[in-house]
Design goal:
The chain contains 27 helices and five strands. The protein is mostly helical and 747 residues long. Strands 2-1-3-5-4 form a five-stranded mixed sheet, sandwiched between helices. Helix 17 crosses helix 19. The protein starts with 13 loop residues before the first helix and ends with a strand. It comes from Priestia megaterium (Bacillus megaterium).
């Protein structure tokens, strides 16, 4: 800490080759948080894992990122990350950990990249603190331990940042092109989310380069054109291919990648209209429920007793589940309510905001005395870059109609960069007794400790009073002592500064470990004592580290005999809402979702009591997905050459069977069961051609498939449950219970 007030001192020879010994433990911490126990997650996010299984089988499936081996429908994201996951699975074998590994390595790589980016300009201590802050930001390891896309996306954008910084240092236009092309690659990971960093890239290049305005405009225009070309390259190829020669583009309404990019995965995230059937989040009783159905892929059914609870839930939905901006304090999936302080609300603050007050004080210190017209130092230029990354992304998450907690990883790099650079800058101002600026360090420590106490307070029943009181007391004491000792210069003051940073990073470090301690959720990753619930926010029940999904819910395929609680999700019995999720009835758990019924564990798909899953493995994917061996044996035995093992409404029911068998299973309505893929005439033709004859239907995921499902029920033979369902689930038979198996043969 005593060296933090020095300027950057790069030793041009031996130090360039020397390993920073302080960086080694930081990388080891990141490796532990990102890699430890990923081998226990057998399915990861089953929706994406099923796609990797399918992509391993043919180049056709690989190129289009087909969800199923039959090439019926794609997943709802571009293919680049899944290409990488498929290559990993090809090298190491198909396992849950092998599809998670690329993201875990990307999380570690992001820590190293941030160290390199910050160290060069702000000094080695700034780089170390930035790297450590990135490693300990809770949402970073929570996401990196899954096969979701965001960790790889952030790593790719940091690679683009390194290229941009190099372009400015070397004054070589080729690096500018490479940086923007890399953003185009990132677009093919998660579409428009990659463009959130563009303000930072444009502002930094304009401010940092010493060339004429004419060249700046020409270079940026050319680089942007290249970025757009790379971005839409895969989309143009897919959309130009005849629809009958490729899978349907999942979660689109017009079978178009570009529509998916700029609609469902683009503008609709801001407006909150993420329902693929087109309803708006401004209709809280329906659209929010539909969004939940679409986003979480929960396709389980409740038993007949849930009808009454369903009606009660509908009457109370406006109280228990408000659309963004409504009265629910934690908001949809604990993402809070839109507003300027949203990132400080429950459910979001504990994922990303632990150091935000310190970052704000750091920004003030780094930009103190800066004149609008310049000239700017290198530190000020790069600070402007991180600010131009931080502010637009923070504004988006403050006003967006719909997103998940794990999207917040986009804020981690600028927050960590400012934490590192700011620690050095504020310490220098403090040691030099630089007027009012010398008060920024103790002020930042005090306000950050106060926020951390606020973040932890809802979790007192889980973590106890001691850590909350400890952080609060130590933060106040250290801030006051630093303020009092401002006129003194000795080693004691240096140790106090180190102690303050340790205190501010202690609880983020614990939070970052919670996916390991309590278990994680590969479908909706979030950190915290209830991390296995995938809901973030204050815990309401004890969760089992081997469970996944929503607060201990037993979704399709689960064989648990545990009794349900108010936190378990069950779909409506006899509902006609096409798989829309109903809010809890009489629940006190704000922001947590429950399907009507709430008291039964009969929310299982084909019963999985005979599953041979190892108890040490965690079949998560937000579905606790398992396979009903009796059903699988029946379908396999009675298959007479059909292409598809069976057809079902959506991806949740299909994914575990694809993962376990590698055989085609048709998700008729795609991801959530709402894609308008099938028509009755098309289905008739497929049946006549002998492509499919068995249909498993639950009460969820109808959406745009209601006519098809009605036709199936009217023209099929119901298979007695005794032939395919385990005896332990006999009380859950029928269309209002556990789902029904049908057979159709047409001549």
């Amino acid at each position: 800490m005593k060296h933090m007030n020095s300027e950057v001192k790069e030793e041009r020879t031996s130090n360039k080759k020397r390993i920073d010994l302080f960086l080694v433990p930081i990388v080891l911490i990141a490796a532990f948080l990102n890699l430890f126990k990923i081998w226990t997650d057998e399915y990861a996010n089953a929706y994406y894992t099923a796609a990797v299984k399918s992509m391993l089988q043919s180049f056709h499936n690989f190129f289009y990122a087909s969800f199923d081996p039959g090439g019926y429908v794609t997943i709802d994201k571009p293919p680049v990350v899944f290409w990488i996951q498929t290559i990993s699975a090809k090298i190491f074998g198909f396992h849950g950990w092998s599809v998670i590994l690329p993201q875990a390595l990307a999380g570690i790589g992001s820590v190293l990249l941030l160290y390199v980016l910050v160290k060069r300009t702000f000094g080695v201590w700034a780089g170390r603190f930035a790297a450590l802050a990135m490693a300990l930001t809770p949402i970073v390891p929570a996401v990196s331990r899954t096969n979701n896309i965001d960790s790889m996306l952030v790593f790719t954008l940091l690679v683009a940042t390194w290229m941009l910084f190099r372009a400015v240092r070397t004054a070589k236009f080729g690096w500018v092109l490479a940086a923007f092309a890399m953003i185009g690659v990132a677009f093919n990971m998660k579409m428009l989310q990659a463009y959130m960093v563009l303000p930072a890239f444009y502002v930094f290049y304009v401010v940092a380069t010493k060339i004429t305005w004419k060249k700046k405009i020409a270079f940026l225009t050319t680089a942007t054109a290249l970025m757009l070309a790379v971005s839409v390259s895969w989309a143009v190829v897919v959309d130009s291919t005849s629809a009958d020669k490729r899978p349907y583009m999942g979660s689109s309404q017009t079978n178009s990648v570009l529509e998916l990019a700029f609609g469902y995965n683009g503008i609709n995230r801001l407006t909150g209209n993420t329902s693929v059937t087109g309803s708006s989040h401004k209709q809280p009783a329906q659209a929010q429920q539909q969004t939940a159905s679409s986003e979480t892929k929960q396709t389980s059914n409740s038993n007949a007793e849930s009808s009454q609870s369903s009606n009660q839930s509908k009457s109370s939905s406006s109280k228990k589940m408000q659309a963004p901006g409504g009265g629910n304090q934690n908001g949809m999936f604990n993402t809070g309510n839109p507003g300027p302080f949203r990132l400080f609300q429950k459910g979001l603050s504990d994922q990303i905001s632990w150091l935000l007050p310190f970052v704000i004080f750091s920004i003030v210190g780094l930009f103190a005395g800066v004149k609008f017209k310049g000239p700017y130092t290198t530190k000020q230029k790069e600070s402007l870059f991180w600010l131009a990354w931080l502010l637009p992304v923070a504004v988006f998450f403050s006003i967006a109609g719909f997103f998940h907690q794990y999207y917040l990883i986009m804020l981690a790099p600028p927050i960590a960069a400012f934490a590192g650079a700011g620690a050095v800058a504020l310490w220098s101002m403090y040691k030099q007794r630089n007027g009012w600026k010398s008060w920024l360090l103790p002020g930042g420590i005090l306000t950050t400790a106060a926020l951390q106490v606020y973040i932890m307070s809802p979790y007192v029943s889980s973590i106890g009073v001691a850590p909350i009181a400890g952080v609060g007391a130590l933060g106040v004491i250290l801030a006051l002592v630093l303020a009092v000792r401002k006129e003194r210069k000795n080693s004691v003051t240096n140790y106090l500064g180190v102690a303050a940073m340790v205190v501010l990073l202690a609880m983020p470090a614990y939070w970052a470990m919670t996916p390991i301690i309590y278990g994680g959720n590969s479908m909706l990753p979030a950190a915290g004592p209830d991390s296995s619930s995938g809901m973030g926010g204050p815990p309401s029940i004890a969760t089992n580290s081997k469970q996944s999904g929503f607060n201990g819910m037993q979704p399709p395929g689960s064989s648990s005999g545990n009794s349900s609680s108010n936190n378990q999700m069950q779909p409506p019995s006899g509902s006609s809402n096409g798989g829309q999720m109903q809010p809890p009835s009489g629940s006190s758990n704000s922001g947590q979702m429950q399907m009507p019924g709430g008291s039964s564990n009969n929310s299982q798909m084909p019963n999985s009591s005979s599953s041979k899953s190892s108890p040490s493995k965690r079949k998560s994917g937000g579905m606790n997905a398992e396979v009903n061996k009796k059903l699988l044996n029946y379908l396999t035995k009675n298959n007479t050459g059909e292409k598809y093992l069976f057809a079902t409404t959506d991806s949740t029911s299909a994914a575990p069977y694809i993962i376990e068998t590698g055989k085609p299973v048709m998700a008729m309505g795609g991801f959530s069961g709402s894609d308008p893929i099938l028509t009755v005439s098309k289905l008739k033709a497929m049946i006549k051609k002998g492509e499919v004859k068995y249909f498993y239907l639950s009460g969820m995921g109808k959406g745009g498939q209601s006519d098809v499902i009605t036709w199936i029920k009217e023209n099929s033979k119901e298979i007695p449950s005794s032939k395919w369902q385990s005896t332990s689930s006999s009380s859950q038979q029928g269309p209002s219970g556990n789902g029904t198996l049908y057979e159709i043969t047409l001549k």
